[in-house]
Queue: 4 jobs
Job 1
Amino acid sequence: MRTDIRNTRRNFMFVGTATALAGCGGAAAVTAPPSATNNAAPLSGNGSLLQNSVNWSTANGRRVVQSNQVPDHDNVGPFPAFACPHALKAVPVELGMPLVPMPLAQPLAIGQSRFGVALNGILLDPAGPWWLGEPAKGWQFEVMSERIRHYQGLDASNGHVQPSGAYHYHGTPQRWVKQLAQTMAMAGPGGPGVDSTLLIGWAADGYPIYRPFVPDVAAGAQALSRELRPSYRLKAGLRPAGAPRGTHDGTFVQDYEYVPGLGDLDECNGMQLAASPEFPNGTYAYFVTEGFPHVPRRWRAQPDPGFLVPLGAAGADESPPQYAGWPAA
């Protein structure tokens, strides 16, 4: 069992007065990096300093994480802000996942659920709100799109705060991943290189989550690594009748289609690894990528029920106001 408590830090850029700011509407032993020094700590809603707290353990065939969902890196927030009026708070959560995944006959779409957890205890939660607030219509906003992230208030780490105060990631938390890689590399011989395979979290079904770099075997011993590519692309033409008007431009998850063999990864944004530092005999693994789907949107095995969120459940990300009444084509 391991418990880490760290300061959450970022560089603040104050514009105007403080009043104006306040008025804004087997890898459990991997240690996440310490925060950068000489940065101001973010404030909770009552003005107190927040600290990251995360504990990973294994028992009874399960991997368990206890987290307060406070990030441990810079480039966070600030929250509340114009597009994300919720204050960052410590929101304790305990989640478990199987040590031995149970593969499904067919991949399972995550819908509005949480996909997994990063090693620093922050949820990887890519699901966006539904068009018109109606999951039955089948059009879900893609929060990582340039049109929508502005309305969701994503920060430089591709995270934001839900109404509960819990912080979560919609895409790659680049700063934290780089800090983790640097810390691991400095830990001693055999640590990961700048672009090598690096565990960053665990999925709800028990499979590991890595950053998208693997050794480039085909290029020979001189090559450090290569970046894995997703196999999704934008659909051509206009959205169909009854859907949000316009072309398939990436505003919605359904603007994308999976094309087998287009990239390196499957429809779950994963692949079979021959070996990794945590699994020398190989494993199926997921990857968080720069391109869509960013955080995977499907599970290859049975997810733990604790990660599941019913479609249309209250408290999830809110629909962008500009598109709340968007007429159909």
Job 2
Amino acid sequence: MEKEIVIRTEELTKRYGKQTAVDRLSLEVTEGEVFGFLGPNGAGKTTTMLMLLGLTEPTSGTVRVCGYDPARDPLKVKELIGYLPENVGFYEDMDARQNLRYIARLNRVPDAVSTGRIDRLLDQVDLAKESDKKVGSYSKGMRQRLGIAEVLVKEPKVLFLDEPTIGLDPDGTNRMLDLIRGLSRKRRMTIFFSSHLLEQVQRISDRIGIMIRGKLVAAGPLAELAQRSLGLEAGESYTLEEIYMKYFKEA
């Protein structure tokens, strides 16, 4: 059975004056897939994500998220997606539960539905015992975990994550990665995430995309990229760092 294409771009381009930030990007991401999006600073990753989220319009080309154009149908797209930026903002004088309740109401989730959902999410991100504390007192790691709960409270179909494990200790990192993987496998949620931590990307990604100087230089399953870039056969060992550096040097 063919999987639904949830994210599709065709010749997607973004220019700022004479500078091309994203150069004719054509990409597909399917339902339930964990797609790791890599590249050095200035490669065009953030600009691409902004176009997928409908926060900036492309210069040319097309983009569809769940079948909708983010620039033309921003409200419809926002109903179907969740976005966790690197630095998450909360109401500091409210506790975790109050913040989640507020977000649920903004997304028109009835209190009768959100109450149980919030309890489950706080437990899932290991904040149930801290839920009555003001968020202003939270550590970076706690805020990151609350951010995951916040984007999941409306049960999105697609989740965009920007450096989701920043500020987490090793145990918290493992929990976060397991949670991301579980959302893909158990809920068929599509995960599009950007990170500089290549070992973590390798651990949970179904496919990888590598952007360099605005161009998508590689995209595919890790084993396929290893064969293509390093000439390795099935069963031979490799790391994502080796693959990434090969493409980086060639570009």
Job 3
Amino acid sequence: RGDVVIVAIDDTSVAALGIWPWSRTLHAQLIDRISQAQPKAIGLNMLLLETSGSDQIDQTLADSLRRSGKVVLPMSMQNINDQVTTVEPMPLFADAAAALGHVHLDIDDDGVARATYKHEGQSGHLWPHVALAMQQLVQNSTVAKTDHEEYSSTQTEVQAADWQRKDRSIIAFAGAAQHFPTVSYVDALE
């Protein structure tokens, strides 16, 4: 339990910092602040798909990701009109991150997430779940951000439009809600 801390984008932070989205310079400052504590891994659960409109601000965040060397960024699947594509962070951020991982959960018919797939992707290129990518980063010290695995479709569950999933894993719930210590984004920043 003490190994995981959640930094939450909460009402207190919105009241202090203003409405979302916040400047990427704030995210860079937060990563720098967290990195000072020498965490083993940082999961930044933000899809950084497009420019902020400022090359300098984007570079500031990329520099912070690179300095940390511990940040895992999410990638995702997008399905528009039955056309499935892999959606990765823009190259500036993907190159600066320590690793990438998918963030999908397997939702049961009753709307509860009880499982996830350790690997998901398209065309035989499967990415680890973001939690697994963080674990690999901790265990191996470094994980290549392009360290996705290649599998043939006979080894995976194939979904619509070639989206593949492998290694279904039941979520071992650690405890009730609020089990992990949570710190407000603005408090962590300050």
Job 4
Amino acid sequence: MAEQEVDEEKRRLIRTVVTSGQGLLALVNDILDMSKIESGKFTIDESHYDLSALLEDLRQLFSIRAQDAGIEFLVELREAQPYQLIGDGQRIGQILINLIGNAIKFTESGEVSLGVWSADGYLFFKVEDTGIGILPETMDQLFQRFEQADGSISRSFGGAGLGLYIS
């Protein structure tokens, strides 16, 4: 609808509804995953997935969100070749969505980038941003459920404090 709508204000409202719906879906999925983790029923699937397709999905998902935030989103695959990997592409995508989403949320200007490369048989991902950063003393608590750096973060930026816990 947003792409077909000619009125800019209506397009903006439609994008807001879509973004809000995606946020609610992510929260429900995070709560379900947290329950699975705590009950010992969380599973990691091992199947083929296409890394290039996953990265393109992330590029499409976050390019609009970054543009709406007034920043740039970059994806750099250092070895520009298609990868067919074995692993849990959905979980890897979920982790990257949490990390990139946080980076965009806490970046007011500049850019957020995702770098991907392989070395010595390992696949590496690096999310970088020009945002507010994280104090070293709050790093450990960010990976606990329902935790954020401080109460002002939740008031200013939103979020339930589950994304990094699940990641």
